[in-house]
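Structure first, sequence second, as always.
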């Protein structure tokens, strides 16, 4: 993505034209124009920090509601911890602080008074939460402890800040759970990853690859990290979410101990897991086209716009039909807006709503009233479908379900057609250049991974849970050491 701040859109004429860059020829400029013209993002005075406009925040609210209901049904409770973390807490777990130190924003002053201890602006909440957990957990009867919070975090990125994908401040949920045994904690790490997969598939219509991150890519302070990786039309993968098994690393650092049933003291086993507003960017990049934003109906802030085609003759009949259509859709649970603005042509309105990604456009004019129909136009395919006015409350919800399903199927076809199994570094490079992702035999070594990344810019993604069988004497694709497992490699954000 381009580092340069984009030019602001200032005139209606530019809006009428829609996007001037194409997804295929200038992906970065296309994305920059899209998020502004679709009124998703505004740039703030602080570089790397972005304003989520209502069209974007409404997507996050739907994801929030869906995932929040899922984890609450599973027994997780919500809470809130402070934004500021004392340095002494942040540094308690050595690997953790080393992993986050370059990205931490610090507060040294309160007004004009220098603080006795500097405060970190929350990059993640393990340390501040686990200080409290050590006070709350005494016995096995206090376990499991399963808490989540919805909040913002700050990670002071210095390179390639891009709205949704990589920013200095972003929104997320972070779950922090504590168990008596390793088995319970590991099982939950996998279960939560399954919850995340549902978010991507069922809401965003994006299939993902579930697997385990490499040692070099795992969360700082974790025993292992699980992830969902999406693959985008531009040939790049993107990490959608993570679920970490922390082992006893933090419980030993923070003194999270409990007395078990045998009256023996034990250190607890812990997990942390998170999903961010980056997931919105994944959906945008997956589905949108050269006309603008395309969103699955289940996350779209506005599912239907009705555009009346008005002439002096038959005006009242058209508006009566429009109002009736809107009422039927609202009663059916569909979000709908009537665009009856004066001074704008229907064509201008069509372009505007296409850019903004409204799932379905209904056109109703005098001829449609005569035929007792509305002309529906799908945003994802452009297909025009006549629908009876009296049956809109039934037909439109069915059509939205069909659109959701077909968008997922299209994304699944992209993913399955983009995975190529190869065995040499030369073949990996070749396939990545062709916008593919490579599944390769790999030694799993950190130095091997770093050397290949430095040389080619190609990163490890994750290790699939379902492993192909290694051949006898199978060599690592990159360094020719003995291969231990198959792993996905590719270009990645």
């Amino acid at each position: 993505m381009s580092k340069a701040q984009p030019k602001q859109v200032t005139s209606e004429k530019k809006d009428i034209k829609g996007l001037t860059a194409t997804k295929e020829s200038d992906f970065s400029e296309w994305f920059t124009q899209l998020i502004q013209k679709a009124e998703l993002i505004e740039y703030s005075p602080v570089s790397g920090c972005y304003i989520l406009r209502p069209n974007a925040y409404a997507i996050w609210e739907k994801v929030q509601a869906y995932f929040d209901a899922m984890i609450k049904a599973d027994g997780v409770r919500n809470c809130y911890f402070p934004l500021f973390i004392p340095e002494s807490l942040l540094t308690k777990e050595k690997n953790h602080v080393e992993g986050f130190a370059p990205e931490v924003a610090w507060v040294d002053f309160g007004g004009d008074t220098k603080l006795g201890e500097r405060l970190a602006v929350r990059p993640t909440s393990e340390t501040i939460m686990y200080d409290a957990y050590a006070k709350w957990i005494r016995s096995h009867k206090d376990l499991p402890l399963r808490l989540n919070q919805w909040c913002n975090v700050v990670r002071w990125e210095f390179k390639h800040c891009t709205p949704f994908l990589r920013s200095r401040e972003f929104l997320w949920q972070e779950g922090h759970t504590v168990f008596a045994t390793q088995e319970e904690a590991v099982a939950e790490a996998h279960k939560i990853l399954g919850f995340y997969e549902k978010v991507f598939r069922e809401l965003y219509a994006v299939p993902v690859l579930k697997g385990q991150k490499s040692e070099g890519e795992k969360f700082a302070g974790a025993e292992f990290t699980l992830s969902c990786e999406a693959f985008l039309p531009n040939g790049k993968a993107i990490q959608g979410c993570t679920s970490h098994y922390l082992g006893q690393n933090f419980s030993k650092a923070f003194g999270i101990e409990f007395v078990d049933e045998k009256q023996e003291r034990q250190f607890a086993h812990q997990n942390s897991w998170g999903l961010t507003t980056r997931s919105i960017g994944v959906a945008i990049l997956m589905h949108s086209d050269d006309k603008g934003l395309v969103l699955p109906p289940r996350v779209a802030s506005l599912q239907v716009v009705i555009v009346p085609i008005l002439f002096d003759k038959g005006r009242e009949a058209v508006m009566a039909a429009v109002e009736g259509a809107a009422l039927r859709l609202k009663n059916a649970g569909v979000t709908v807006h009537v665009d009856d603005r004066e001074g704008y042509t229907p064509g201008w309105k069509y372009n505007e709503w296409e850019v903004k990604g409204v799932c379905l456009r209904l056109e109703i004019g005098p001829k449609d009233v005569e035929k007792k129909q509305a002309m529906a136009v799908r945003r994802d395919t452009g297909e025009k479908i006549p629908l009876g006015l009296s049956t809109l409350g039934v037909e439109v919800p069915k059509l939205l379900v069909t659109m959701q399903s077909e968008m997922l199927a299209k994304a699944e076809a992209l993913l399955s057609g983009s995975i190529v199994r190869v065995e040499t570094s030369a073949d990996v490079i070749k396939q990545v250049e062709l916008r593919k992702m490579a599944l390769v035999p790999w030694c799993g070594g950190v130095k091997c991974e770093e050397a290949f990344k430095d040389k080619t810019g190609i990163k490890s993604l994750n290790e699939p849970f379902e492993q192909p069988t290694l051949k006898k004497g199978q060599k690592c694709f990159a360094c020719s050491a003995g291969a231990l497992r198959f792993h996905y490699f590719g270009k990645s954000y």
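Margin note: Confidence is low (pLDDT under 50) at residues 1-16.
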